[in-house]
Design a protein that fits this description.
Layout lengths: L16 H10 L12 H8 L9 E7 L11 H20 L9 E5 L5 E6 L1 H8 L4 E6 L4 E2 L4 H4 L8 H4 L7 E6 L41 E6 L2 H7 L17 H10 L3 E6 L2 E6 L7 E6 L1 E2 L2 E2 L1 H14 L3 E4 L1 E2 L9 H11 L3 E5 L18 E6 L3 E9 L4 E5 L8 E7 L10 H4 L6 E4 L6 H10 L4 E5 L4 H4 L9 E4 L1 H12 L5 E11 L6 E2 L19 E4 L3 E4 L7 E3 L3 E3 L3 E4 L2 H18 L5 H10 L12 E2 L11 H4 L6 H4 L4 E2 L4 H10 L4 H8 L20 E5 L6 E11 L5 E9 L4 E5 L2 E4 L5 E10 L9 E9 L5 E10 L13
Helix pairs in contact: 3-4, 8-15, 9-10
Length: 807
């Protein structure tokens, strides 16, 4: 806004001399030794219109070194600043009806600053105050919605579980939608009653939540909703449950996956029957509710992370994220940097926007970014024909229905199963056979609305059940089209065809597993493409964990909704807490390790092979399936027991992360928004994309042009003593990789040695091709294989989410 008019001294729109003097005196504490506004601020104020614009919520970063000595705390400084702005703007506009801007949160751990509701005019005034760094709008986040411990080879006899004492006394902060504290997963049986002395948190009282519900397992519970209330924009704003109690189920599910206690006899309506337990069953839980049915906002997320760091958690698990937000405005990135400095590992979900490349969020260098896979467990039922032939298919019909020797019907007029009216004309005690079409969910709905007793559906699309898209609301089963041909042939050639369906069956040992889930978001990272993301993948499809009993977990028919204390959910939200649990175990087994050391150990020991010994594939994207690239699975499936003893680690200091930010050409203010400290300096070391991470990614502009890139890395020997490692490389196309030196001789534990990897990528076979491979440092006795993924990607994939995925 440009002001072309100079106001006369006695104009009604001008400021009186008395008001100027009064403001300068009463608000002098806002400023440093000058105690006055600069002339530019007053010029700016005089140019504003006579009415304040509608207020918005902003997250404001401040340089705390500018706080005047007269203030006793940062919050006092921030509050005085905002109060002054309000007094000035109200007097300027002679409007007593304007609601004063209010500070929602003061931050001192995740960042230095506060969250506040301001008009655009007040924001411009704030920008002129000493200590201001940056401000940006509050944003909405996206949630990334017990056999997995066996699939990850965790066992009580050896390996990470006993070495870490099952994560005892590690405190995991869950930043999510709250908790259902009465769940059996949060009982504290067999746990020590003494809470770790470093714990500074508490359990807050709230609506339908009493602090007495906390115990030796659930040691902390807080809720943060000022941001979501402000976003509603009216004085009557409210949330459905003003406490840490979970009304969405997401937080209950993720937290019990991380550290739920042992619960016998759990199942999902007869499926996945067994003993439920978290990955770190002896770890403590601290819950920070920041996600609400009304929304999830960055201001609340930052407040939750800020409090978790202050409370003394060891791990933060967050299954939500922000798409295409720069690091210096991403609350997860900002909070995680502070956490990293204090040794707190942040584990975050990659998102559910796959399989497009470049669809990933939480691609933050100092965060463990987790993609999702399936497991070797599947659920379903068995179809038995009257002639004795049987077929196994998918179903999660939530009951042991009596579908025994009923009439099997297949007719061309109804075979599409696309009309509930036509289906209702069949006999009530009939099982209809539906042709293979794309919209199986619609077929299920039509059958449910009809009077047909049950149905046989056909589909070869494994993504349907993987994504949790299908809700089996009628007694039905999905079989393959190939098996469907046999069923149809039986109906056509039999006078009285009959069928029986058996439900509530769980199958273990499914081949091939793991497979990268089609929904799991792929890299590269939009915010920092020079660091390969995701880091690893973990089980995320059809995961059984605790649930809220007042929200439906299943449905029968059109209007019968069933509750359950345990539920099967799918998403990278479910993969993230698996990795968070493993991090908790590693924190206990290796308290001396840095955040980057733990992330490195998980990456270099991840398994790129499935349970048949073949390279992990991508689900449902190609027919036949193709090997997954590191953009889909990172280094592969987490391998907890191997991560306990990785041999070598790639360690990173906070300054190394800053050097990377400097290389990205971030401004000083943008870097300060992340680091909160002027102690980091781009001139301390060479700013470089050559970041000491345990993975390698390079980009090409034109597939017909060859290129070369050198990577410099340093590894630390964390084995028992002296060791010798030899380099072994492979790549999927004709690219050439050389390593110098190709032999590393360590004389002692914790010794560091450096090497250079040179990648010469040749012409790509086709446009948008992705080439991948790996560097392996193999210890001469064969005890360790330290593997780092390598990928070469088209440069435009970072900015084009429609680019073809896969390899």
């Amino acid at each position: 806004m440009i002001c072309n008019t100079i106001l006369a001294p006695h104009s009604s729109a001008s400021l009186s001399k008395g008001f100027l003097l009064h403001t300068m005196k009463t608000r002098s504490l806002l400023f440093l030794s000058s105690h006055i506004f600069s002339l530019s601020i007053w010029s700016l104020l005089l140019c504003y219109s006579s009415a304040l614009s509608e207020r918005s919520t902003y997250i404001v970063h401040m340089d705390k070194t500018h706080m005047p000595e007269d203030f006793t705390s940062y919050h006092h400084w921030y509050s005085s600043t905002i109060t002054s702005l309000n007094s000035i703007s109200t007097s300027l506009h002679n409007n007593d009806n304007n609601k004063a801007p209010s500070i929602l949160y003061s931050y001192d751990n995740a960042l230095h600053g506060f969250c506040v509701t301001l008009s655009p005019e007040e924001l411009e005034m704030l920008k002129q105050t000493p200590g201001f760094i940056s401000a940006y709008n509050d944003r909405a986040a996206t949630l990334d919605t017990t056999q997995t411990y066996e699939f990850l080879s965790l066992n009580p006899s050896n390996g990470l579980w006993p070495a870490s004492n099952y994560g005892e006394n590690v405190i995991v902060g869950i930043v999510d939608s709250g908790i259902w504290p009465e769940s059996e997963s949060y009982k504290d049986h067999s746990m020590t009653t003494e809470v770790p002395s470093k714990w500074k948190g508490t359990c807050e009282a709230g609506q339908e939540f009493d602090p007495s519900l906390c115990n030796s397992k659930l040691i902390g519970a807080r809720h943060f909703n000022k941001g979501v209330l402000a976003a509603q924009g009216n004085e009557h704003a409210k949330v459905g449950m003003n406490s840490v109690r979970d009304t969405m189920g997401h937080g209950t599910h993720t937290s019990s996956t991380v550290a739920g206690n042992y619960v016998n006899g759990t199942s999902y309506f007869g499926y996945a029957n067994g003993t439920a337990r978290g990955i770190a069953p002896r770890a403590r839980l601290a819950i920070y509710k920041v996600s609400w049915p009304e929304g999830s906002h960055s201001s609340d997320i930052l407040a939750g992370m800020d409090q978790a760091i202050a409370d003394g958690v060891d791990v933060i698990s967050i299954s939500m994220g922000f798409d295409k937000v720069p690091l210096y405005e991403d609350p997860v990135a900002i909070g995680a940097f502070s956490a990293m400095e204090k040794g707190v590992v942040v584990s975050a979900s990659a998102g559910n926007s796959g399989p497009a490349l470049g669809s990933l969020h939480n691609g933050i260098p100092w965060v463990l970014t987790v993609g999702a896979s399936n497991t070797e467990r599947s659920f379903g039922g068995t179809l038995v024909l009257g002639n004795g032939k049987s077929f196994v298919g998918w179903t999660l019909f939530p009951a042991s229905a009596t579908v025994n020797k009923l009439a099997l019907v297949y007719h061309k007029n109804i075979s599409a199963c696309d009309s509930s009216e036509l289906l209702s004309q069949l006999g009530r005690k009939s099982i209809v056979v539906c042709d293979s079409i794309k919209h199986v969910a619609k077929q299920i709905r039509h059958v449910t609305e009809s009077q047909v007793y049950g149905a046989i559906f056909m589909s070869s699309d494994s993504r349907l059940t993987e994504r949790g898209k299908l809700t089996m609301t009628c007694p039905g089963v999905v079989i393959s089209p190939e098996d469907g041909k046999s069923v149809i042939e039986y109906v056509k050639t039999t006078i009285h065809p009959l069928a029986t369906i058996k439900f509530q069956q769980t199958f273990v040992g499914t081949k091939h597993a793991p497979i990268v889930a089609s929904y799991s978001s792929r890299g590269p990272s939009w915010g920092c493409p020079s660091v390969l993301k995701p880091d690893v993948m973990a089980p995320g499809s059809s995961i059984l964990a605790a649930w809220i009993p007042d929200s439906p977990a299943a449905q029968i028919g059109s209007n019968v909704f069933l509750s359950s204390e345990y539920n099967l959910l799918t998403g990278t939200s479910m993969a993230c807490p698996h990795a968070s649990g493993v991090v908790a175990l590693l924190k206990n087994a290796h308290p001396e390790w840095s955040v980057s050391a733990i992330i490195s150990a998980l990456i270099t020991t991840a398994n790129p092979l499935d349970n048949t010994g073949k390279h992990v594939e991508e689900n449902g994207y190609y027919d036949p399936p193709q090997p997954a690239s590191p953009l889909a699975m990172g280094a592969g499936q987490i391998n907890p027991n191997r991560a306990l003893d990785p041999g070598l680690i790639y360690d990173v200091t906070p300054q190394d992360y800053v050097n990377l930010l400097c290389a990205m050409n971030l401004t000083k203010s943008q870097i300060l928004s992340i680091t909160r400290s002027k102690g980091y300096n781009c001139s301390i070391s060479v700013s470089s994309y050559d970041f000491n991470c345990p993975s390698f990614i390079d980009f090409y502009v034109n597939e017909s042009v060859t290129g070369e890139r050198k990577f410099r890395r340093t590894v630390t020997n964390v084995g028992d003593g002296p060791a010798v490692y030899m380099a072994r490389v492979n790549v999927s196309n004709d690219s050439a990789i050389t390593v110098s030196p190709n032999k590393l001789v360590f004389k002692r534990k914790y010794e560091k040695l450096s090497f250079t990897l040179t990648l010469k990528h040749s012409q790509m076979e086709k446009k948008h091709s992705v080439a991948s491979g790996a560097l392996e440092w193999v210890e001469e006795t064969g005890r360790y294989t330290v593997r780092s993924p390598i990928v070469v990607v088209p440069e435009n994939v970072v900015f084009n989410s429609e680019t073809e995925g896969g390899v």
